[in-house]
Amino acid sequence: LRVKFELGLFDNAMPDKSLMANFGKAEHQKIALEAARESIVLLKNQNNILPLPKNKKVLVTGPTADSLISLNNGWTYVWQGSEASLYPKDKPTIQKAIEEKLGGKNFEFVQGTHIVRKPNSTSNNNPTDIDEEVNVKKAVDEAKDADYIVLCLGEGSYTEHPGDISDLTLPEIQLKFAEAIIETGKPVVLVLAEGRPRIINRIADKVSAILLALNPGNEGGRAVTDVIFGDYNPNGKLPFTY
To answer: How far apart are the C-alpha atoms of 69 and 82, rounded to whole Å?
Structure first.
């Protein structure tokens, strides 16, 4: 309340409409990108596999690879953050940002699995939290031909009571998919787009690198990509052991 008083919200509860002209300016987007970069935590980098070279073939796969929902989470465009159509079309997901960075020759994307909302449910009141297989076999087949794999796992969107869970372990569908990708023997960079520290004990020791992206916002796709390919040195830190 003190902050609201200091901002004068109790003197004039309706904001000045002229301030809308400042919304989404280029300088603000630049700050958002920098904040997203600074928030990324490098949890593992075995044999200094990161940054990846830009002249090798990279497969991007996983349920959070092509999702602005996963980069933003709840309390964004709707309460549960689960309406994909409301997200800006000019902001790249992780896979699209990597494609922009590498070009088509060294880039391949296969979904593998995805996270969806309950069928026939309203986006405002229902989280995006149902994991489903899409084309796991195709993803595994493509992984065999790649030099590196960027595996994007994590969560969809949720907030408050609808997002409550009783187990922090990553969903079984995601873990099994990760194990199938890992079994190809190719180096795997695991990217976690999530609002909570989900348990990944089954796969943590089997991947070459782990990036904790958390929910970096609409600039998160570019931020994650910059870290993976060495255009930004990750310096985020955690107040807990993960």
So the answer is: 6
